[in-house]
Write a structure and sequence with these properties.
The protein is an alpha+beta fold and about 475 residues long. About 15% of the residues lie in helices and about 25% in strands. The strands form 4 sheets. Strands 3, 4, 5, 6, 11, 12, 13, 14 and 15 form a 9-stranded antiparallel beta sheet that branches. Strands 1, 2, 16, 17, 18, 19 and 20 form a 7-stranded mixed beta sheet that branches. Strands 7-10 form a two-stranded antiparallel ribbon. The longest helix is centred in the middle third of the chain and has 14 residues. The termini are far apart.
């Protein structure tokens, strides 16, 4: 920082990087790959009731974490659901009531109808490989790509031995309207330690400060009644200005922070990025906190399965809770991020899941044929194992800068039109969420197909008689 207590733009950008100054240790890449493929016995694994979770913590790709910018003063709308907070600092630990901190990992993985390349990330998708997808030159990758990397490209599917019997399967939905009231929102705010009266405006319930100076709760009027909680006072990446040109986080010395007392261009209350201190809470602490949150909303914490992770050098840990229905995880998880001081942020679905009766479903073979039907928009929801393990050569590392443009195409040259040959080897029936035009959310039967390379593809399983193919009018 210079004499005017200002950081130049580059310095401020670097200061805002949560992974700044963190370098991978020996074996880091191998651990990332193992965690992404589910082969590492790290803290993403779940333990049976009564058992102690594995002490080792998984690590996440540094490049992906650098994309994750910590919020400054805007309460993140994507941050929701919370934990029982006392006095705004500290949390109730679920283990205190003797309950298990985790559930056995025996439910089938969640199925998503949003593909790898879709607007929403597929649940439980392997990490690391997608970071490589953006490296190098896109033209080079598109020309050399020989597998449906991330679901892109033209595909020709084949299979054998799939079932040919149709049937029925249960469907569910989120009852958002029943929970959208002052009493429900106020009770959640009280459990979180957020002060204030719920106010309904601009399509959401809000409680607490909305200017980033104190903890806040937001409950959106969407189909799941998604809620978010954020406490800026516990954000280890943000340091309130102290008046002497420095910043502090929870009373500790932070990095250089621009101070409104010395720089009139900075609005009071704005916090600046700083170097976090401390260490990430344990897996058990994060999961127990999320269990306590779920219990505080009147739900059975044992009806969820839990996962948890952090990244190397992080001072926070996240935990996820996956609703389980009929032995299947649902792709709308709850998430909490915990610091040493308490709950930093959390989000989830406040609406209850209710049964909607039986739907007619197509057979495995008929669903397989939907993979080639453009009406069903077949989605790749997990990358092939070779990509997850890094066995496929990375185009970015092999690319050599050209010294001249390509030669003119020859007369009558064949036109490159690559088609990926995808062999489907298995199918399973599960559940996936589906958002309706009116904003309501269904949980519908869906098939997940696994190809010979370990990649997965999903399509809706509901029979055409219950599918409305009309295009919504604006």
């Amino acid at each position: 920082m210079n004499d005017d207590h200002e950081l130049d733009p580059e310095a401020r950008l670097r200061a805002a990087d949560p992974a700044a100054g963190v370098e991978p240790r020996a074996g880091f890449v191998d651990e990332v790959v193992a965690a992404a493929t589910g082969e590492a016995t790290a803290s993403t694994e779940t333990a049976a009731p009564g058992e102690t979770a594995a002490p080792a913590a998984p690590v996440t790709d540094l490049g992906a974490e650098r994309v994750r910018r910590r919020p400054r003063w805007i309460p993140a709308a994507a941050v929701a659901a919370s934990l029982v907070v006392f006095g705004g600092a500290g949390y109730a630990v679920g283990a205190a009531n003797g309950g298990p901190s985790n559930l056995a990992s025996d439910a089938a993985p969640a199925i998503s109808l949003q593909g790898v390349s879709g607007g929403a990330a597929a649940p439980e998708m392997a990490t690391g490989a997608d970071a490589r997808a953006g490296a190098g030159t896109s033209n080079k990758m598109s020309a050399d790509m020989s597998y449906p990397y991330g679901g892109f490209g033209r595909n020709e599917f084949s299979s054998s031995g799939l079932g040919t019997t149709a049937g029925t399967a249960a469907g569910y939905g989120y009852d958002a309207r029943a929970a959208s009231n002052v009493e429900t929102v106020a009770a959640l705010a009280a459990a979180l330690g957020v002060e204030g009266t719920p106010e309904l405006a601009n399509g959401a319930w809000t409680v607490g400060s909305q200017d980033g100076t104190a903890a806040s709760l937001t409950v959106g009027l969407d189909g799941t009644l998604g809620f978010s909680f954020y406490d800026p006072s516990l954000d280890p990446w943000s340091c309130p200005a102290t008046g002497d040109g420095t910043g502090s986080s929870d009373g500790s010395e932070g990095g250089d922070a621009v101070d409104p007392a010395t720089d009139p261009s900075i609005e009071p209350g704005i916090v600046e990025p700083c170097q976090p201190t401390g260490s990430a809470p344990s897996e058990a602490t994060a999961i127990d906190a999320l269990r306590t949150l779920i219990t505080s909303t009147g739900r059975d914490a044992d009806a969820f399965e839990y996962t948890s992770e952090t990244w190397e050098g992080s001072v926070t840990r996240t935990a996820q809770a996956w609703p389980v229905i009929d032995g299947q995880r649902v792709d709308q998880s709850w998430t909490a991020e915990v610091t040493e001081k308490g709950l930093l942020n959390a989000y989830g679905a406040l609406a209850d899941i209710v049964p909607l009766g039986e739907y007619e479903i197509v057979s495995e073979q008929d669903a397989f044929e939907r993979l080639s039907d453009p009406r069903f928009g077949a989605q790749m929801t997990a990358l092939p194992i070779l990509y997850r393990e890094g066995a496929v050569a990375d185009a970015a590392t092999e690319w050599v800068p050209p010294t001249e443009p390509p030669a003119v195409p020859t007369s009558g040259a064949s036109i490159s039109w690559p088609v990926n040959q995808v062999e489907i080897v298995s199918a399973r029936l599960g559940l996936a969420s589906q958002w309706q035009p009116d904003g309501s959310v269904l949980i519908v039967p869906a098939y997940e197909f696994t190809d010979a390379g370990g990649g997965t593809w999903s399509v809706i399983a509901v029979a055409e008689s219950k599918l409305d193919f009309s295009t919504p009018t604006e």
